[in-house]
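Hi again,

Forgot to attach this to my earlier email, sorry! This is the prediction with flavin-adenine dinucleotide bound. I've pasted everything inline since the attachment limit keeps bouncing my files.
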Amino acid sequence: MKFIRDIFAEKKATGKPVVSFEFFPPKTEEGDRNLLEKQIPALIATRPDFCSVTYGAGGSTREKTLMIVDRIQREHQLTALAHLTCVNHTQAEIGSLLEKFRALGCKNILALRGDAPGGGEFQLTPGGFEFSSQLVKFIRDAGDFSIGVAGFPEGHIANKISKQADWQHLKEKTDAGADFVLTQLFFDNADFFEFRDHVTKKLGVQIPIVPGIIAILSAAQITRFTQLCGSKIPPALRAKLDALGNDDEAAMKFGIEYATQQCEELLRVGVPGLHFYTLNKAHSTVQVLKNLGLA
Ligand SMILES: Cc1cc2nc3c(=O)[nH]c(=O)nc-3n(C[C@H](O)[C@H](O)[C@H](O)COP(=O)(O)OP(=O)(O)OC[C@H]3O[C@@H](n4cnc5c(N)ncnc54)[C@H](O)[C@@H]3O)c2cc1C
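Structure tokens for the complex follow:
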């Protein structure tokens, strides 16, 4: 399996974007089967460069992150990126988790702080890490992993100072040893461009910054989602979603068109990749990639 930093270097040389998909560990066995036997194979048929698997706030889904990463790599010979958070972990626990990832042949970690279980304020675990930059440094010191971090084009929801203050912390993560940035989802490309220009030109961040893209599946779902992660729904998009109401089929069709247009503009300006939040459903992401000629 490859280091993701090498994938970015190889693709840069070809002028093609790095395409990646994000999955989350399902809560049920039926969800596992659907993801592993239907959705992942359908998405992998489009030949992405890597897939990532999120890491939950606690409980059994944490073990499933390792299981899904392992199956993606073994069954599809595709590089996987394991998300890892500081929530409820001591440094020693993180150290043994890294050993487990290494034993599975997983060479890539997305280093995150994570959020509190249930959505409350993050609590520092005694003997753990307070910020993701500390986790990045720990992983870098632990050995040879390629490390990704999260970036927030609209600023992180918990940073009450300013988005620029949050972006400064992204610089700390890159200085600590991150190799690439995957961003939070956003719907206005202007937010991404402002963020990218600030961190590259003003702060000197030089690693690939990859926009996070979601194809909307339903108005209700994206409203819930954005309330949790703090991404805004621009007024014109809000009006369109309100007009679509509960018609999920129409919302999905519209979501594919919207994401396609967003990606077309991002590709025109030369982003290094596209990271898709698949929500464990293949259809919309596959359609967007087909529209872009990238499937
Ligand atoms: C691509 C992507 C994937 C994600 N995957 C997961 C996942 O798998 N599991 C999960 O639980 N969550 C996931 N998240 C959500 C993420 O964990 C939360 O948004 C979390 O609140 C912030 O994580 P971070 O790594 O950016 O934290 P940090 O970089 O630690 O930042 C957290 C907050 O602290 C501030 N901060 C950072 N450093 C300092 C400092 N030195 N002093 C003062 N303030 C500081 C930042 O501005 C920010 O407000 C993901 C997010 C993205 C964008």
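Residues 222 and 245 are 12 Å apart (CA to CA). The pocket of flavin-adenine dinucleotide is lined by residues 54-55, 57, 83, 85, 112-115, 131-133, 150, 156, 158-159, 166, 169, 173, 182, 184, 212 (CB under 6 Å).

That should be everything now.

G.
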